Amino acid sequence: MKTIVVGIGNPILGDDGVGIHITRKLQKNKNLSSDITVEEAQTGGMNLLDLIIGFDHAILVDAVSLTGCAHGEINRFDLSDLPTVHSQNPHDVSLSEAISMIEALDDSSVPQNITIIGVNLKQIPREFTETISSEIRACIPQAVDMILSELQSLTKQDNLNVNT
Amino acid sequence: MKTITIDPITRLEGHGKINIFLNDNGNVENAYLQIPELRGFERFSQGRRAEDMPQITSRICGVCPVAHHFASTKALDDAFDVEPPSAAKKLRELMYMGYFIYDHILHFYYLGGPDFVVGPDAPAAKRNVLGVIEKAGVDIGKEVIKHRAFGQRITGILGGKATHPVCGLPGGLSKGLNDDEVKEIKDMVGSCVDFAQFSLKLFDDIVLKNKDYVDLITSDPYQLNTYNMGLVDKNNKVNFYDGLIRVTDQDAREHDKFPVKDYYEKIAERVEEWSYMKFPYLKDIGWNGLSDGKKSGIYRVGPLGRLNASDGMATPLADKEYKQLFETLGGKPVNSTLAFHWARLIELLYATERAKELINDKEITSNHIRNPVGKPCEGFGVTEAARGTLIHHYKLNEKGLVEKANLIVATTNNAGAITMSVRDAAKGMIKNGNVDQGILNKVEMAFRAYDPCFACATHALPGGMPMKIDIYNAEKQKIQTLEQ
Fold first, then answer.
1. What was the ipTM of the complex prediction?
2. Within the 134-193 window of chain B, which residues sit less than 8 Å (CB to CB) from chain A?
């Protein structure tokens, strides 16, 4: 069973890059088996799909902006929980749409599970900076643990040193 | 007419928000599209090494990193007073064609095309790429994916990395092509030319042979009689990678042609209180409000802007299609916003033909791909991003560090036109206070044609809907919100 964990974000847009900071921390875990691949992506939609094709499971780690959630709250949800089939921005398709398309073409290379670990931001960052805020930085360990738990249940590995 | 002030604190949730203001009769007085602007770029760039800028700025756009990468690299060529060797320019341009190939395929089949292929009145759930596959067939879907991937592979081979290129250097490139790579690219490009022609035929069969669609394209709410702007080569043919900036007027005559370093003398910006957006306009014509016509300095960039601002395409098949577009739609200039989609496909064909010319050029495997740099000072770089003219401007200190950096992105150039198109589409859908539910579709079609850049540097997944319309009555009270 091959699993990929993708940290998604823009490293020059502050907290938007938190996904990448999380996966960089995850990569320091020495107990990840060779069936687990950790990657970074600064893109979405079709490009993101290209990365995860061929894996059995995918865990995507990203900043999210959900109403009703606190700043820094971390949630786990399935891709199918994303609210819209429309493009997430006017010139790229959403990952959901990209996947629907591949499935419509009878292609079975899409991962059977796609999970999202989302760190909630009250506002989508608009200021160029390479620095993550201290509030969001404080979420990184918890996010890493959630990913490790997820990996544990997907791969049945039990030596990942999950802290929670 | 009552003066309307929109509180600029009203922020976007990350995607398109449109405010529509009605007059006393319940008809549209104005509609304003708010595009979130990213801030602090100049401060962020200060003190950075100049040669890092092409990689840093390619992060600004998740969909068109190549455009920023090369506008930045060219600004550094200028700032370091160095002309890259001819082989380096050809390699850069070839990579640029790869970008246009994947970008324009994505836009037509996944984003803009569905409006036509499935139909503008089809339910929203069908107006996406799945609807296109349903209508055009699974095999077409596979070809779309395959050729989009070819475009990405071409830029990946040349750029050193799949999505964010790392090859641009002041004075040239860090990487050339070997014989195996040339062979691989040649095969892919050959297939891309065929696919581009197929796409135009599809457009012809599904759109142009359908009278309702042609009527829609030429209908009033989608006409805008602005000036047009794009890069042209020495024969005034469209060029995406380099050239002079050309502006044509409402009679298709050349109004101006200038090198990018004259941009600030030729273009001014209008700041409106109610928006974060700045509206560029031609200085010599002047600002005449959000209006079109000869007296308004507002212009359009992007596929239709480029075709209007030029005298043709530099490759034979695309040039034939170029002539066909203007013949069909009543001569130059074409003012129909929805014709952007057709122009996009013609550009796709040109990109594939130009890529074929370049990959077969004897110089493409040359090792002479960099010239030594001079002393750092100030530089401008211009390219045509998929959605329009893109400019990078840097001031470097004597150590080669950035002192000042400014970008003018394509969507900024189109700000006035997009706002007017949205307003006109809205006007058709709201009469005497009655809002037609189809308004979201029609308005979305208007701005989707431009393929605008809505802070696509941001990757946080939104929890809300991508587009929202707020409608206000004459007393500035919000009376309705529409979302999808």
1. 0.82
2. 134, 138, 141-142, 145, 148-149, 152, 162-164
